[in-house]
Design goal:
The complex is a heterodimer.
Chain A (H helix, E strand, L loop, with lengths): L14 H23 L11 H34 L16 H30 L6 H9 L17 E8 L2 E5 L13 E3 L1 E5 L3 E8 L4 E3 L8 E3 L5 E6 L4 E6 L12 E7 L1 H31 L10
Parallel strand pairs in A: 1-5, 4-10
Antiparallel strand pairs in A: 1-2, 2-3, 5-8, 6-7, 9-10
Chain B lengths: L10 H4 L17 H6 L3 H30 L9 H36 L7 H20 L26 H29 L12 H32 L13 H35 L6 H14 L15 H29 L8 H24 L1 H7 L3 H31 L5 H27 L15 H32 L37 H13 L10
Helix pairs in contact in B: 3-4, 3-5, 3-15, 4-5, 4-6, 4-8, 4-13, 5-6, 6-7, 7-8, 7-9, 8-9, 8-10, 8-11, 8-13, 9-10, 10-11, 11-13, 11-14, 13-14, 14-15
The chains are: A alpha+beta, B mainly alpha.
């Protein structure tokens, strides 16, 4: 048998069977595609511009990914079938490689990645830079107080509704801007359900009170890790009223699975009403608690409590 | 690569002089104590492979319990606490006690044989490596009798701190990382020195088998990455017990520091787990395609390239943490770059099959199945490298699908290819082809059924590490499919276990070279004697055994293949 050291230029592979199998795979794929629609194969199209831009990048990557997947599976399957041993112990072609092919597929792979990277840079702004609110939202923000810290990305107008999201075992707390109320109760807050106005740019300032959590409502963009000791930011802008579900995405202890998050988007007027009502509820609850404490403080004897 | 000798052999060359002169031949030690005192790299290799396969079974049982719990929505089979313990045990076992040391097991058995050496450079250190590994495994699993850890194999602080994980299980985890890490570091040092210094005459770097390239880069990555996790877990230990505050945000420490240190180790760890597997594939494909490996230099160089890049990408596990935009962009571009050498490997493997004469033996099936499955994991890896997309996908079942395509479709398939390929060398007997093929198809179908659908579950919003999920969307159907797949996969593994146990006694006698392979380990009898080689042949090409077969055929006129198993 002959062994050569140099790279022989391989003869052209037979194209017809290769193209046939490619065609077969393509038609199989076309048939399977409707079936695949029954499954979720993309990130959510999203109810917020940033989630939508992520979706667009994902779809482009999926197209490339499926093409590469098909290319590899078809050529692998074709090689296995076409070059199966016809005789026991027959030798294959003694080819050691091909420099032009090597360079070709290296550059090809790099090219795909460059296209993806460029597309990401094109879309990046619409993902990380908050947009201005819509007219209704702007009007709302004109009326409401703004919560200002300088280190995060802001919409061009600088106006946004900023909500502090605090992760703790095993509940999300949402603290709304607005300072202290008359009962010195602190800012208005809610648990589990975040109510936000539509057409308004909402910036979330995410942190954690105990262990690491991760904020994730898929329709409103990607995850932000809530790390104790750090502030992390994200934003969204919802155009139509709706309810969006999510949950903590980073293992945070035994009830991690139960740490759910809901965002309910309502028109700005309804939002203002909700916020006022929420504030009132908290004040009433605060007063009741203060009364109960005062009562307990007067108890003497076996019923008394320390530090009511 | 050099051309093999073409002139006829002289009588002197045929009767080579012995390279070892012994005054007495000691009887090979027998009995179970000989396995404890042994420093023979082959016996240590067998100890590694058997032990880690035992841990693979334990980790597999844990995986099945996880899948049972997730089989239906809102299941109450196990408590949240037990569930968290299960995924922590599963992840830790598979990474620290199965894949990494399994590769060390193959390396131990094969490195000296493949490079033409009589043992590892430091045989006693080699034995110590194994016993440290076993000790690590025992310490970790002993926690089953009190409180197993439940913070995940990544053990993020503050959850793994004393306040939130007061039990001793977390300390057992730390101890495991220390012991197995020390075991890996000593083993890696040994591999590196052995490969650098003990190669047969003529085996230049350009003739180093690709599996040895894999083990070489594996060793370098271990030497650079393992000390980092050792430092990190030491800091965790002192935080937990001795009043330091490295990771404690309430006392000026940083919870993010743990993630940086962990993933600076954790990402190279991924390549520590897969590079030797890549090497196994690069050995198996040429033998069964009856053809030299396509683009040897490109495949070897891509191994080195992946090894280098693996240290520049760690923060892609942390895209959702508060990091500057410049860091996000750098880590995205470096992570995407890894797809290039990985793609080069896949194309070269397909190139190796192209125009071959492919014999469909079980090792080839596992190798081809590996290419098919690993490609899926590689592609989903590019999705995760793009940080805006990663914000949607990370910590979801999409990531679970990705790591399992890379580690089960990837590393486990290569390990099974290796088991079927080298079992005849290690035991002297062939595995059953029928059972082997059955096992392959069950595993291949099982992996696709279990993990493909997990991408969908992740895209539908299911986070990882949840002990239950609500019955919304297709989640119930997705998870049931995945659970059924896991049992198909487990059945495939079981068939191989039966095959191994059966073939140990009843397998056909393999002979020295049943596959008509290319590398030096097949020059020895099966199983090889304690000193491996009577005469270490001179290496003249990447395929020394092929050259030897050609020489023998020329000198004797007999062209029958060496060995009887083929």
């Amino acid at each position: 048998m002959e062994q050569t050291e140099h790279n022989t230029t391989p003869p052209r592979p037979k194209l017809i069977p290769f193209l046939t199998s490619l065609l077969l795979a393509g038609s199989a794929f076309a048939l399977l595609a409707p079936a695949a629609q029954a499954f979720t194969v993309t990130t959510p199209e999203g109810a917020s511009p940033n989630a939508h831009a992520i979706h667009e990048i994902y779809v482009l990557a999926l197209a490339f990914g499926l093409a590469i997947f098909l290319g590899v599976w078809v050529s692998l399957g074709w090689c296995l079938w076409r070059y199966r041993a016809r005789k026991r112990h027959a030798e294959g072609a003694q080819i050691h490689g091909n420099t032009r092919l090597e360079v070709g597929w290296t550059l090809g792979a790099a090219g795909v990645l460059v296209v993806l990277a460029v597309f990401i840079f094109v879309k990046l702004g619409s993902i990380i830079d908050p947009q201005n609110s819509g007219p209704e939202g702007e009007a709302l923000l004109e009326r409401g107080p703004l919560y200002a810290l300088a280190e995060r990305k802001l919409p061009p107008s600088g106006k946004r509704l900023e909500i502090n999201v605090v992760g703790r075992q095993y509940v999300w707390q949402f603290v709304y801007p607005g300072g202290t109320g008359p009962a010195k109760f602190g800012p208005t807050y809610s648990y589990e359900e975040m109510v936000v106005p539509t057409e308004t740019t909402v910036v979330l300032n995410v942190t954690a009170a105990d262990v690491v959590h991760s904020w994730w409502v898929p329709a409103l963009g990607g995850k932000v890790q809530a790390v104790p000791g750090y502030h992390n930011y994200t934003w969204f802008k919802i155009s139509k009223p709706g309810v969006f579900h999510g949950q903590c995405a980073n293992i945070c202890g035994r009830d991690h699975a139960r740490m759910i998050a809901t965002v309910r988007a309502v028109p700005p007027a309804q939002f203002e009403a909700w916020l006022a009502e929420r504030k009132r509820d908290l004040e009433i609850a605060g007063e009741e608690a203060a009364n109960a404490r005062a009562k307990m403080a007067q108890l003497r004897g076996p019923q008394s409590v320390e530090n009511p | 690569m050099a051309t093999p000798q073409t002139q006829a052999l002289t009588a002197e060359q045929v009767t080579a002089l012995p390279q070892i002169v012994a005054h007495e031949v000691r009887r090979e030690p027998k009995g179970w104590t000989s396995w404890i005192t042994t420093t023979d790299h082959k016996r240590i290799g067998i100890l590694y492979i058997v032990t880690t396969f035992g841990f693979f079974i334990l980790g597999g049982v844990e995986a099945l319990m996880i899948r049972l719990q997730l089989g239906v929505p809102e299941n109450t089979l196990v408590t949240p606490q037990v569930y968290n313990q299960l995924f922590t045990l599963h992840g830790t076992t598979m990474v620290f006690l199965f894949v990494v040391p399994m590769m060390a097991g193959f390396g131990n058995y094969l490195v000296p044989l493949m490079i033409g050496a009589r043992d590892m450079a430091f045989p006693r250190l080699n034995a110590l490596s194994y016993w440290l590994l076993l000790a690590g495994g025992i310490v970790f699993y002993a926690s089953l009798f009190f409180t197993p850890p439940e913070a995940g194999w990544t053990s993020y602080v503050p959850l793994s701190g004393a306040l939130y994980s007061p039990g001793g299980g977390q300390d057992a985890w730390i101890y495991l990382v220390h012991l197995t890490g020390l075991s890996s570091i000593l083993g890696a040092l040994n591999f590196y020195v052995t490969i650098a210094n003990m190669r047969a005459k003529g085996m230049s770097w350009g003739r180093l088998p690709l599996f040895i390239w894999g083990i070489l880069i594996y060793s370098i990555l271990i030497l650079l990455a393992m000390p980092v996790i050792a430092a990190a877990v030491t800091m965790l230990l002192t935080d937990r017990h001795f009043g330091t505050h490295f990771f404690d945000p309430t006392n000026g420490g940083s919870a993010l520091l743990w993630q940086h240190l962990f993933w600076f180790f954790g990402h190279p760890e991924v390549y520590i787990m897969i590079l030797p597997g890549f090497g196994i594939i690069s050995e198996v494909l040429p033998v069964f395609a009856r053809k030299p490996v396509f683009g040897y230099k490109a495949v070897a160089a891509s191994t080195v390239g992946i090894g280098f890049l693996s240290f520049l990408v760690w923060a892609h596990h942390m895209f959702a943490t508060p990091l500057p935009l410049a860091v996000l962009i750098f880590m995205m571009l470096s992570s995407m770059t890894i797809a290039i050498p990985t793609g080069v490997k896949i194309f070269n493997w397909i190139g190796t099959l192209w125009r071959g004469s492919i014999e469909f033996r079980t090792p080839l099936l596992f190798a081809a199945g590996f290419i098919a499955l690993f490609t899926i994991g590689g592609i989903s890896g590019v999705f995760l490298a793009m940080f805006p997309v990663d914000w949607q996908l990370n910590e979801s079942y999409f990531v679970v699908a990705h790591i399992h395509f890379v580690l089960v479709g990837g590393a486990v398939m290569t390990i099974f290819a290796g088991i079927y390929y080298w079992f005849p060398k290690i035991t002297g007997r062939m595995l059953s082809e029928r059972l082997g093929k059955l096992s392959f198809w069950l595993m291949f179908v099982g992996i696709l059924t279990t993990f493909l659908i997990q991408h969908v579950a992740g895209l539908e919003g299911m986070p990882r590490r949840v002990y239950e999920y609500p019955n919304v969307g297709d989640l119930a159907a997705d998870n049931l499919t995945s659970t059924v797949g896991a049992f198909i996969l487990a059945l495939g593994v079981l068939v191989t276990i039966i095959n191994v146990l059966r073939s140990l006694k009843h397998g056909a006698i393999a002979g020295p070279d049943p596959w008509r392979a290319n590398t030096l380990e097949w020059f020895t009898p099966s199983p090889p004697p304690p000193h491996n080689f009577d005469v270490i042949p001179e290496v003249r090409s990447l395929e020394p055994l092929r050259d030897i077969r050609a020489e023998v055929a020329r000198a004797t006129g007999v062209t029958e293949p060496v060995g009887t198993g083929g």
